[in-house]
Amino acid sequence: MKNFILRILSSIVFLGLVGLGLFPNEYSLMIFKVLWTGILLLSLGEFFSILISKTKPVPLDKTQTLGSPISPTTVPLSKKAILPSLVSFLGVFLSTFTVAEITVILTGFLNRRDPKTWIKYVAFGVLSQAFITQPLTILLYLREDHVFHIYLCLAVGIGSDTGGYLFGHLSRIISRFIKSYEPYLIVPFISPHKTLEGSLGGFIGSLILCYVLSQVTGFSIPWMYVPAMTLMCQMGDLLESGFKRSLHVKDSGSLIPGHGGILDRIDGYLLLLPFYETLVRSYVETILLR
User: Fold this and answer.
1) Among 42, 46, 72, 44, which residue's Cα sits nearest to residue 137?
2) Most CB atoms within 10 A, among 112, 119, 152, 242?
3) Model-level pTM?
């Protein structure tokens, strides 16, 4: 119970900070960009700190991270063109990927690294780009276009996380009283606490919060996409858990009490945002935000 209360309080504080960048005023976008930059840098810091501490020999130095914070500043032409969302998404990815990886590759050549270590430079750069920088870059573009995109992604993410935690916790309480009942673990080799009951609770939580969002904002919700968005959110959570478990790490950090690090708080969005950009965004803009 103490941990649950701590999670709620830290979530309120975190969402309060994010909310400063979502209010409809002239300063909110600037505040959002400042918060976004902080989240990006902290996430990359946690990511590389884990890799540095858990890989031998250590193949990274400060130059490794230069490309990722710089890359979101590149604005691809495809983003402003009238193209299908998938093509637009690929344009964003390729432009940001190029800046980051050129930095990494040049670093490897200039320092005359041995091939195995140099390959690790490139591999870690690619992983950080695909797993962290690219999804957060999409988040920034969504905020610049229409704040409803952020509201919808937050509703799915928060609903999935909260519903999953509550239903998972409730299933474990029930199992103490009903000996014949045991929560069904989905992928115990990745996460020993992720249950089928918690996953179902995540879907229910997402639907409830999306309904609340529709009532508060007056916008329609793309209901046919919500289950898939929730699934992507849960898959992102499992992906980050698998990354940590492969390196024998419980939390990515300790910045947010009850949650761990920034990566532990945003992991669900790391697959949700690319999915939203690729398949959902065009539908929302052409059908629901007209």
Assistant:
1) 72
2) 152
3) 0.79
